[in-house]
Amino acid sequence: MNALELQAAMRAGRRVFGTCIVSTSPKWPAMIASTGLDFVFLDTEHMPIDRAQLSWMCAAYGAMNLAPVVRVPAPDPYMACMALDGGAAGVVFPYVESVEQGLALRGAVKFRPLKGRRLRGALDGVETLEPELAEYVAGWAEGRLMIINIESVPALEALDEILEIPDLDALLIGPHDLSLNLGLPEDYAHPKFKKAVSTIIRKARAKAVAVGLHYSFGIEPEIEWAKEGANFIVHSSDFFLTRNTLAADLRRFKEELGEKVEETPGKTAPDEVI
Prior knowledge:
This protein has 274 residues and is an alpha/beta fold. The protein has helices at 3-11, 28-33, 51-63, 77-85, 99-110, 116-124, 131-141, 153-157, 159-162, 175-181, 191-206, 219-228, 238-256; strands at residues 16-20, 39-43, 67-71, 90-93, 145-150, 170-173, 210-215, 232-237.
């Protein structure tokens, strides 16, 4: 899907599927496009992808009709503008816990290239843009997605207010950080964690806002969440999918050939959680 198609599908409540891309290999975009995904998730918060690499990746995946959705390193509107200038179809703000942070993202994505006092006045609703300027700004915003990461208890507490932010396209739940914030590190089966996810999904869909999770620890929970209403699905990453498939293949080789099978650690190191 291109950016406009992805936005239209999400606003219509249809399910869209993507994965996190870590590899910067020039062979990757065509291969990923052949899988049938709708979009790609490019994470510059946890991954060492510089601005030039990001722009190249956005251009390559966009040319393959895979809308590039970029998570910036911090909830900073200037970083969001940099990602958009690099070709991002949408921006994910990480670890948003307040309406003010969400409004900053709205300013960057939906009112670009306005800045300063004029932008603040428009966001606060105290200033009306001239018709020509309003049309110009709307043209810039066309097909640009505004996505907020929900990853903490304060975000849950502010969820109703965050969902009232105009122009919000989607919420992306960060299950790893959310589990830590709930005091349940990586316990994704805990009733408290499952209740939090279900609450986010229910409230987002009630407001016609797309919602999903970036989850890398098995497909079954993702299917269940999709059945509950999650429709913005970021399944795993090329990093985890490659590692898990290779590990499974090697295990089978050794079992079939009578080789010693060494157990691999069940949990990932913190810097491997994407």
